[in-house]
Amino acid sequence: MLYAIIADIHSNLAAFEAVLQDIKTRGKIEQIWCLGDIVGYGPDPHQCIELIHQYNYLCVAGNHDWAAIGAIDTSDFNSAAAVAAHWTASQLTSEDKEFLRNLPLTQTADNFTLTHGSPRDPIWEYLTDTYSAEENLTYFHTSYCLIGHSHIPLLFEWPEDRQSCGLYRLYDDSTLELKDKRLMFNPGSVGQPRDGDPRASYAIYNSENRTVHLFRLVYEINRTQSRMLECSLPQHLITRLSYGR
Ligand code: ZN
Fold first, then answer.
1. Residue 161 has what pLDDT?
2. Residue 99: is its pLDDT beyond 80?
3. DSSP string computed for 69-87
4. What mean pLDDT value characterizes the chain?
5. Ligand 1 centre from 66 Cα, in Å?
6. Residue 160 C-alpha to ligand 1 middle, in angstroms?
7. What's the mean pLDDT in 123-134?
8. How do beta strands 29-34 and 57-59 pair?
9. Measured in angstroms, how far is the CA atom of residue 9 from the centroid of ligand 1?
10. CB 25 within 8 A of CB 66
11. Residue 235: pLDDT band by 50, 70, 90 thresholds?
């Protein structure tokens, strides 16, 4: 069976639509696993929430999802992110807010734990180094953990003897073989990539051959940017989409 792994859509409808379209070309997808931050930064929060409801999905909460419903204070956000979070809150219906409020912090599916930041601190912790990854290993009890939040496609992998954690950047068309190792995997961001590649990022897990494949996808960045201009979202957030930074 095939499962799509997506993270950090960030109200970028053009990117989300392109990813959903691409997913359909890969075969029958059992379920979409979404690792949080559906909203924040981008111009179409309500439309992105509405769209995910058309699919069979599992989803967890991210920091921007919580900021949009006032569950966390935006004083820890940079100013552009805080402006976007307040604007996002003004665009959501009461049903959207209810949906975001009810998202769990973690979910498990198959042999995976799904979370936004890290299993230890699902809302805030960024996992970008092996030291933090090591500390998180005892916080999840499945073999594998799926994370988002940093917007960078990454793999943390422990060899069978669990001696030391390896950290690898992942690029377009990378395939991981799961085997019996423990690992943590970040599929990158659908709506605001930050690894210098502006293309949308997502992955597909194939439970038959136990592989995860990473895809990068061109989408209409200028469509999202025009919408952001119309909505008077901060210029910095508009520009960065062109660079994937
Ligand atoms: Zn994010």
1. 75
2. yes
3. TTSS-GGGS-HHHHHHHHH
4. 96
5. 11
6. 31
7. 96
8. parallel
9. 8
10. no
11. very high
Q: How many angstroms does the Cα of residue 87 sit away from the middle of ligand 1?
A: 16
pLDDT at residue 5 in the model: 98
**Could you tell me the distance, in angstroms and rounded to a whole number, from the CA of residue 163 to the centre of ligand 1?**
31
Ligand 1 centre distance from Cα of residue 40 (Å): 8
By the CB criterion, residues less than 5 angstroms from ion ligand 1 are 8, 37
Q: 187: which residues sit within 8 A by CB, 6+ positions away?
A: 5, 6, 7, 35, 146, 148, 153, 201, 202, 203, 214
Give distance in angstroms: CA of 150 to centre of ligand 1.
7
In the predicted structure, residue 163 carries a pLDDT above the cut 80: no
User: Quick one: 41 exposed, middle or buried, by C-beta within 10 A (0-12, 13-18, 19+)?
Assistant: buried
Tell me: the pLDDT tens digits for 2-57? 999 999 999 999 999 999 999 999 999 999 999 999 999 999 999 999 999 999 99
Q: List Cα–Cα distances, 243 to 14, 195, 196, 240, in angstroms.
A: 16, 9, 6, 5
The candidate with the shortest Cα–Cα distance to 96, out of 33, 53, 32, 43, is 53
Element (H or E) spanning 134, and its range? Answer: helix 130-136
Output the pLDDT for position 76: 86
Distance CA 147, CA 60 (A): 10
Q: From residue 137, how far is each of 14, 73, 133, 149 by CA, in Å?
A: 35, 28, 6, 18
Query: Is the model's pTM score more than 0.90?
Result: yes
Q: Which residue has the tokens 């009461």?
A: 94
Cα 64 to middle of ligand 1, angstroms: 7
What is the 189 CA–ligand 1 centroid distance (Å)?
7
How long is the chain? 245
